[in-house]
Specification:
Helices cover about 25% and strands about 25% of the residues. It is α/β, with parallel strands linked by helices. The strands form 5 sheets. Strands 1, 2, 3, 4, 5, 14, 15, 16 and 17 form a 9-stranded mixed beta sheet that branches. An 8-stranded mixed beta sheet has the order 19-18-21-20-23-22-24-25. It has a 5-stranded parallel beta sheet with strand order 6-7-8-9-10. A hairpin with a 2-residue loop joins strand 16 and strand 17. The relative contact order is 0.13.
């Protein structure tokens, strides 16, 4: 018998003894109001914990080597975020854990798709290593679409053979969101091999199918793709539910489908829903919280709190086959959150693996800091300094294609607008009161391709903003009211090694947030990140930007898998037809 097996054997013997009342619990939580996610009931009960697991619940358990009085707090399973990109928080996993554990989150299903598009399988390995041994369990899905499409240049690639290899990792729970639904529908061999790899490993496949319906949706779900987090209307989500898809209701910084999809949940289908942040920035995590904020917001919208807690814990655990968590019951892992009430959801205590992890909004102990490898900090590689003439734009037709921002959504409008030309036939960076130039520049050292176009809705009156966070290939994306300012912003971004930059009307940097880790994250504290983010947002607003999160919105303008018109380093993409304009 090896050491690990012997340890498990002894822990199980101890749990059995505590469960039957032969031995006292290691930790007894008394005077709690237990939320039963199986029956959606609340009962007064004590919780007896042996080692990392719950030995039993009920009034029969009265003895413990350590006793904590919960003072009639509500005992719920630890919350589980069913879909999150860690990179979009701008933080490394250890710092993210420090933020979300005090809000009751004890597990996250994350897709390291963003860093994989920069560093390939090395990026996935980095995120798995960086999230090891933290007071929140970070389970990963293997990115399925790296690169996302052939319409952009990514820094990394993950093929079917690498997917198969990564599936063997004990904290990998499935294949990440399958954005390449045309590849699925066409029966692309490489795409199907990735799906087969997850099936063979006994793991799930996440979906990503905005606006997909009819026979195409049935073909997509029939390939074993079980979830979707892209539904933005009740009608769309209802069709997916009828086809057996589980709906992850998204509540992030850039977009939320909570108000539109919550009314769909009823007693007959509540097992089919989960919650995910997808993309949530550090400042919002500090200010509003995590899934506890989602629960509070949903209750304010009229949702039933016990059903919400089930969706935020048990449903996610069962879907991702994490069968030892997601409930407060005997044999389950003692990952627990104690709420003061079921309206505001104030978090009193958080337990991880049977021990207190956070109390009254603060961690019991700081998570270990991960030291980044040097290769992760040198990923912004542009060939040369850019000049204003690099952003010259001409169009042969009377009407110019324009990306139309829809506030609060990832989808865009495909507009065709008559815009004035300058004397030489070119189009200025601000040809109309709500029009700006936008450009994407390849930054992975693969040729330096570049595309310039027009965008409506950023409302920049002067200067420029630039980012190395450009979903999903994370090339440099810049928008502005002046070509000189756009060039200055890109050059400053390259000097910083990635991040966010605002350049004023004087063509000088007004504010910046460096993100040296793959051009996506920083090792700094969340409070520092939030302060710098506030500074760049303030500087962007001084340029005229009116959107709440202009950088986050900007980052999705380069995502050629979400309709309708997007821009990449290779051209302006008509996503509805998967072709270049």
């Amino acid at each position: 018998m090896d050491i690990n097996h012997s340890k498990l054997f002894e822990e199980e013997k101890k749990r059995l003894a505590v469960a039957q009342g032969h031995d006292p619990a290691d930790l007894l939580l008394k005077n709690g109001r237990l939320i039963n996610v199986f029956t959606l009931e609340v009962k007064k009960a004590n919780v007896a914990i042996a080692g990392e697991r719950i030995a039993g619940v009920g009034s029969d358990y009265t003895e413990g080597r350590e006793v904590i009085d919960l003072e009639e707090g509500y005992v719920a399973p630890g919350l589980i975020d069913a879909h999150l990109h860690i990179e979009s928080t701008l933080l490394l996993p250890s710092e993210l854990a420090r933020l979300i554990v005090p809000h009751g989150t004890t597990a996250v299903i994350h897709d390291p798709h963003e860093i994989a598009n920069v560093m390939g399988a090395e990026g996935v390995a980095l995120m798995l290593a960086a999230s090891e041994g933290l007071p929140c369990d970070f389970f990963a899905t293997v990115p399925s679409c790296v690169p996302t499409s052939l319409m952009e240049t990514a820094g990394g690639e993950i093929n079917a053979a690498q997917v198969t290899e990564l599936m063997a990792h004990p904290r990998v729970v499935g294949l990440g969101e399958m954005m390449n639904y045309p590849g699925v529908l066409e029966g692309n061999e490489e795409v199907l091999q990735k799906i087969f790899a997850a099936r063979k490993a006994g793991k799930v496949v996440d979906g990503h199918a905005p606006a997909l319906g009819g026979r195409s949706l049935q073909a997509y779900t029939g390939s074993g793709i079980l979830t979707d987090h892209e539904s933005i209307t009740a009608e769309e989500a209802r069709e997916k539910l009828r086809n057996g898809m589980k709906i992850i209701i998204r509540h992030g910084s850039a977009t939320s489908s909570l108000a539109d999809l919550l009314p769909l949940i009823n007693p007959a289908n509540c097992d089919m829903f989960m919650f995910g942040s997808d993309d949530r920035e550090a400042g919002e995590l500090l200010e509003k919280g995590h899934l506890d904020d989602l629960l509070k917001t949903a209750v304010e919208m009229g949702a039933e709190p016990l059903t919400l807690i089930k969706a935020a814990s048990c449903n996610a655990a069962r879907h991702f086959r994490l069968y030892d968590r997601g409930a407060v019951a005997a044999g389950y892992r003692a990952d627990l959150v104690i709420f003061g009430d079921l309206k505001e959801f104030p978090v009193m205590l958080v337990f991880k693996d049977g021990r207190p992890a956070a109390r009254a909004g603060r961690m019991e102990a700081a998570p270990a800091v991960y030291e980044l490898p040097r290769s992760a900090c040198s990923t912004v590689k542009i060939n040369r300094l850019l000049r204003e003439e690099d952003f010259t734009l001409t169009c042969s037709s009377e009407k110019v294609p324009v990306i139309g921002i829809i506030p609060g959504q990832l989808i865009t409008e495909k507009l065709f607008i008559n815009v004035p030309r300058q004397k030489d036939g070119t189009i200025s960076a601000r040809p109309g009161p709500d029009l700006n130039k936008i450009a994407v520049i390849e930054r992975h050292g693969k040729g330096g391709g570049m595309t310039t176009a027009l965008i409506k809705g950023l409302s920049l009156q002067k200067g420029a903003i630039a980012s190395s966070v450009g979903h999903d290939s994370h090339n440099i994306i810049v928008a502005g009211a002046s070509e000189k300012a756009m060039a200055a912003a890109v050059n400053e971004l390259a000097r910083l090694g990635g991040g966010f930059v605002v350049v004023g009307a004087d063509n000088l940097a007004a504010a910046s947030l460096p993100l040296p880790a793959a051009g996506l994250m920083t090792a700094e504290k969340a409070e520092t990140v939030a302060q710098k983010m506030a500074a760049v947002l303030s500087a962007a607003r001084r340029l005229g930007a009116t959107l709440p999160q202009p950088f986050l919105t900007l980052s999705f303008m380069a995502l050629p898998v979400i309709p309708s018109l997007k821009i990449t380093d290779r051209g302006l993409v008509d996503v509805d037809n998967f072709s270049f304009l």
